[in-house]
Specification:
The structure holds two protein chains of two kinds.
Chain A lengths: L1 H16 L2 H21 L3 H24 L4 H6 L1 H7 L4 H30 L4 H28 L7 H8 L4 H15 L5 H31 L1
Helix pairs in contact in A: 1-6, 2-3, 3-6, 3-7, 3-8, 6-7, 6-10, 7-8, 7-9, 7-10, 9-10
Chain B lengths: L1 H8 L1 H7 L3 H23 L13 H28 L2 H33 L7 H25 L5 H24 L18 H33 L4 H9 L1
The chains are: A mainly alpha, B mainly alpha.
């Protein structure tokens, strides 16, 4: 278990030394939301209807942006190889990486969402549902992105490729979370969607780290 | 049993064994496709609702089934490669990806052509159309990853992992999209039930499906053979084979 904590601590140290790694995606997220608003126009009803979705999509895009550099440094400086040859589990390593990635991308985002929501005329209940949706869907998104990042780790300029590989897998979580938003808006039962999202989360939690560590091992061995 | 498996996994043995496969299966598929096309397009009865536009089914439905089977075959090859480290399985998966992608593309195109007169639009955001589009995107992702890896001189192991992750995800994508919205009619053909169409409609459809499978098999084996000979061109047996041609 200590290896898990050490990896997370090292990640946070890394993020503190290079704040751009998590600040740039956040700024990118803000810009995408802003461009959506400009494109839709200031009409209150229109914004209210579309806001939840484009905030969510903007957050997905910003994750792809930060995933690109998730394993880069460890791969280039050789610490990934050290983990592979050590007795420590790569599975734990990739889980710790994903958790740290989630904390720096989604925690600030969830804190930001209420303010953005107020700016886009969402009412309090919609903001709660939006935060719940992001909270439920974001770990799945991060875990899938880590698989994409691990697959393309040895390739230069892998950003676009990660998008192409990972976005098809974002379809089910996106469908269920939009279903959740709609059900909440129409005052219907939201629990089927919540259960589905939790189910997807556990599926990703069970399978994605092993796919990630398999790819990391391949990259370190090559 | 395992010895047979290992012999099949050797590129040289496979190459010798599969010498006649592309031609044989190609000819068989040509016969079946010709028979199915002529029967389906000229002699099968028109649909009582859709009229003659139903005939595109003879191209569309088998392509849809085969495009999905191609993914399954590719994923099985990838798993064989990852588990037993048989290089031939990797090349087989590599050879399958473009075939599956083109079939998925064919499904979308023929579906659009059929949709215009029948539904009145080229495209709807319906469950099956969307999941076929996702299938096409998956194929494109696998092909792009493969190209990028080979440019760097790496082998296809990350690609094999991606194919397997996709295999787990395909049913989830399918069911989630089904939940999302459905306009498309249910499957035309299932293995378990008696078909609802008359035999003069489903027999040509079955011929076409068999023809498609044989066609894919013929193209697939010839692509694998190309891959083998281009990778093994420096070996003695490959040179000897090239000399004998």
């Amino acid at each position: 278990m200590t290896f898990f904590y050490r990896t997370i601590a090292r990640e946070f140290l890394n993020y503190r030394r290079k704040p751009g790694l998590f600040l740039n995606p956040l700024i990118f997220f803000g810009l995408v939301v802003f461009l959506f608003v400009v494109g839709l126009g200031p009409d209150e009803a229109k914004l209210n209807q579309a806001a939840s979705i484009f905030i969510l999509v903007a957050s997905l895009l910003s994750v792809l942006m930060s995933a690109e550099s998730a394993f880069d440094q460890d791969y280039e400086e050789g610490s990934l190889e050290l983990v592979v040859v050590s007795s420590n589990s790569l599975l734990i390593y990739s889980l710790a990486k994903s958790l740290a990635h989630w904390v720096v991308t989604f925690l600030p985002l969830i804190l930001l969402v209420p303010f953005i929501g107020i700016g886009l005329f969402l009412d309090v209940e919609q903001i709660w549902v939006l935060c719940l949706g992001i909270l439920l869907v974001s770990p799945t998104i991060i875990l899938l992105a880590s698989v994409g990042a691990a697959m393309t780790i040895s390739l230069p300029r892998n950003g676009v490729l990660i998008g192409l590989l990972v976005l098809p897998f974002y379809v089910p979580p996106l469908i269920f979370v939009t279903g959740l938003f709609e059900a909440a808006l129409l005052k219907q039962n939201v629990f089927p969607y919540v259960y589905w999202l939790i189910g997807l989360l556990f599926l990703a939690l069970g399978l994605a780290p092993s796919a990630t560590s398999a790819c990391l091992r391949i990259a370190a061995e090559d | 049993m395992l010895g047979w498996f290992h012999r099949l996994g050797s590129p040289k043995t496979f190459f010798g064994m599969s010498q006649s496969w592309p031609k044989t299966f190609g000819l068989l598929s040509l016969v079946l496709l010709a028979l199915g096309t002529v029967w389906g397009l000229l002699f099968a009865p028109p649909d009582y609702q859709q009229g003659h536009s139903v005939r595109i089914m003879y191209v569309h439905v088998p392509a849809a089934a085969v495009a999905q089977s191609c993914y399954l075959i590719m994923a099985i090859s990838s798993a064989v490669f990852l588990i037993w480290n048989i290089k031939l399985a990797d090349w087989a998966a590599k050879s399958m990806a473009p075939i599956g992608a083109s079939l998925a593309f064919l499904v979308l195109i023929t579906g659009a052509i059929w949709g215009k007169p029948t539904w009145g639009t080229w495209w709807v955001w319906d469950a099956r159309l969307t999941s076929t589009l996702v299938l096409l995107l998956l194929y494109l992702g696998i092909i792009a990853l493969r190209n990028a890896l080979e440019e760097k001189g790496n082998d296809g192991r990350p690609c094999a992992v991606l194919a397997l992750v996709g295999l787990v995800n395909l049913p989830i994508i399918k069911y989630s999209v089904d939940w999302w919205f459905t306009l498309h009619q249910p499957a035309s053909f299932t293995l378990t039930e008696k078909p609802k169409m008359p035999p003069e409609m489903w027999i040509p459809l079955l011929l076409m499906a068999a023809g498609y499978y044989l066609f894919v098999f013929s193209v697939w084996t010839s692509r694998i053979r190309n891959e083998i000979i281009s990778r093994e061109r420096k070996t003695a047996w490959a040179k000897a084979w090239a000399g004998s041609q």
